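Entry:
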Amino acid sequence: MNVITRGIRNAFRNMIRTLSITVILGLSIGLSLVMLIANQAVANKIASVKASIGNTISISPAGFTPGSSANNALTTNELNSVKTIAHVTNLTEVLTDRLHNANATLPSRFPFDNTSSNGNNTTSLSSPIKLNVNRGGNGPRIFINGGGNLPSNFSLPVSIIGTTDPSNVNSNAITITSGSTIDAGKSTHNALVSTSMAAKNDMKVGSTFTAYGTTLTVKGIFTGDSTSAVANDVIVSLPTEQQLSGQTGVVTGAVATVDSIDNLDATTTAIQNKLGSAANVTNAVTEANNTISPLNSVKTITLYSLIGAVAAGSMIILMTMVMIVRERRREIGVIKAIGASNLRVMTQFMAESVTFTLLGAVVGIIGGVLAGNPITKLLVSNSTNAGARGPGGGFRHGGGFGPGHAFASFHSGIANISASIGWDIILYGLAAAVIIALIGSALASFFIAKIRPAEVMRAE
C-alpha cells in the first residue's frame, strides 16, 4: 500500500473525528468562498459603475431640494456664461413644475409646491402612479402632515418638464413610440406624454389636455430606459414651460456636456467659479465616488473576512494534524525504524490532511454556492441603506437634475447587485482548500521530522 493511499485511509480511522473536522472545515471553507464571491461581485459592480460615468456636469440652484417650495432658481442669462467655458460642448436646460388634477381634491396639508408664478397650476391629466395606501402594499407611499386619509378622488401631481433636449430627460434616454418629438427651441402648445400617462388618460397622438388653463396637443408618446422613472412625466419645450408657468428666463437645472472625461474636473471647477454661490455644480465622478464608497467598505470587509476564514481553516487543520501526530508518535517511530524516510511519513500525513480538507471543501463549496448571492445582497443592502435616501431624497421634483437624482440613479444600480458564481469561483474554492491543507500540515511535518525512532521505542 503506498503512502498516499495509507494517508487517505487513515483519515477515516475515527469517523466521529472525521465528521467533526469535515463540518468545521466546511464552515471555514464555505465562509471563504462566500467572501470570495461577495468580493468579486462588489469589485465587478464598482468597475461597472465607474465604466458608466459619463462626461456630464449637473448644475442646480444652490440649496435646491426636491419637493420643497422654497428653492432658488437659475436663469438662462446666468447659464449663457457656462456655454462659453472651454471644453463645454453642450448645455441642456430644464424647468420643472408639478400640476395637480383640476378635478381631484388635495389633502389640506399635502406638501404641494407651486414653483411657478402662474396661480393656475392645474391639469386635466390624472397620474398613472398607483399609490400604496396600505402598509406593506406596492407602490409609493404618501404621509400626510398631521395624519388623516387621502381623499377618495386624490390624484398624484403630474411632473411637467420644459427642456432644451427632449431626447434625454431625468437621465433617461427617451424613445418616441408614437408620433414625433417636439421642437425644443420654440414655444408651442405641443407636448410629449409617457406611455403610462397616455394609457391612464386614454390619449393618443393628436389628443389634447389642459395645463395651466391652456390646451396642449399630444405630439408624441414616449418611453424611457426606466419606464417607472418617466411614467409621471409630461415633456414640453423650455420656452413653452417658461411661458405657461410665467417664469420667463428661469430654469431649475442644467446639464453641461464636456468634450472629454479628462477635462471633467477642471471644467466643473470653472463652472462653479463662473456661477459662484448661486449654484451647486457636481459631476458624475464625484457622485459615483460618493455612492460606491459603501461598496468599497464591503469589498474591504470581504477581503479581510476571506483572509480570516482561510487563516481559521489553516489553524483548524494545523491543530488537528498536530494532535494526530502526537497520538501516533509510536506508529511514526515504528515506521521510521523499519526504514521509512521523513519524506514518506510526511507525505502520508499530508495526504490525510488533504483528504480532511477536500471533504470539508465539498461541504463548504455547496454551502458557499447556495449562500453566496443572498449574503452578498445582504452585505450590500446593509452598507448602502444608510445613504439610500441620499441628498435630495423624498418626492421627485420633475426633472431630477443635480446631486439628488444622480445619487438615486447610482444607488439604484448598486443596490441591484448580483453575484455570478462560475466554475472559476469553485476552482478558487478548491485552491483555497488545498492551500489550507498544505499550510495546516506544515507544522505537523516539522514535528514528524523531530521524532527519533530510538527515543520513541525507549519510551515505550
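The two ends are 26 Å apart (CA to CA).
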